Fold this protein.
Amino acid sequence: MFRRLAWVTALAFSCSSCLEAGLIAMSSQIEGECYQDLSVTVIDDRTGGKVCDARVTLLNSDGETEVLEDCYQASLLEGRYRLRASMPGRKAATTFLEVPDLSACKPSTSTVMLTIPP
């Protein structure tokens, strides 16, 4: 499952101000899962510059696919993932990620750079 943190953030905007803090704390405890944040940078090999109009997908080991937006950010659970960046008329750039055991719940961010070939 992807972006459960986004759900908790969305909850904050839908709650009344008096209950907001308590509901967010309660939902975080119910979730009880740790995440590793992922930041992806996509480079166009033709220009050498960073692009934010590539299609970036993340496929987890359960076969669930997520399209990354917001210039490619995600929060990941423990597991294996295939990360793919593509642009129309170009070859795709692909890499594989493994998020290790997160039982210690130490927040971290992994940064991945993918270069789309000409």
